[in-house]
Amino acid sequence: MRGWLFIWLAVVFAVAPQAVRADDNRPLSLKIEQQDAANFTVTWKLPVNVEPRHMPRVSTDGCEERGRARTWSDPLGYWREEAWHCAQGIEAREIAIVYPLANPNLATIVRVFRAGAGDPQTILLQPQDGSFAIGTEEEASSGGGFLEFIKLGVEHIWIGIDHLLFVAGLVLIAAKPRRILVTITGFTLAHSVTLALAALDLVRLPIAAIEAVIALSIVFLAVEIVKGPRDTLTWRKPVVVASAFGLLHGFGFAAVLREIGLPQGSLVSSLLAFNIGIEIGQVVFAAGIFALLWLLGRTGERLAGQLPVQKLAGYAVGCLASMWMIERLSGI
Question: Where does the secretion signal sit in this chain (predicted)?
Answer without folding.
Answer: 1-22
